[in-house]
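Model it.
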Amino acid sequence: PPPLQTPDRSHILTAGHSLGGAAALETARLDDRVDAAVDIDGMPRTPENAAPVTKPALAIVAGDADPNPEYNAALDALLDDGNGVRVTLDGVTHFGMIDVGLMIGPVPGITGTRGPSGPTSVAQATPHLNDAVTTGRSLNTPALAQLGTVSAPDSK
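Modeled.
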C-alpha cells in the first residue's frame, strides 16, 4: 500500500489488545470524537446495562480459548447496536494475536495451533474497519470471513 501522506484527523479509530482492546471499545462508546474501535481479544469492562457502541466496531476474538460466557455476553451487549461484528480466529490464543508467536515461535499452548499467523490475521482484519469508516459502507464481512468465523449479536 502507498505510504500514509497526511493523517485524516476527521476519522479517529481506537484499537488495542487485551485491556487496551476493552479500553478502545469503551472510548468509542463514550467519546463522540471516535468513529470506530478494534478490540483485539479484550474483556469488556463496561458497566452492566450500559448503552452499546453505536459506531462501527470489530472484535477480534481468540478461537483457542476456553468458553467464557461472561466475556461473550459482555461483548454481545456492546455490539448489540448492529454496527459491530466479532471475528473469531480459530487456532489462535490470546497471546497468539500479538508478536509473542514471532518471538518465541509456535508454542501451541501459548500462541495457538496457528502459531505466528495470528498477528497477520489481526493485521488483515483491521483495515476492513478503517475502510468502512472512511467510505461509509458496512464492514466487508465476506472478506473478514476469510480470516475467521464472523458473527454479530441479534439487534434488539
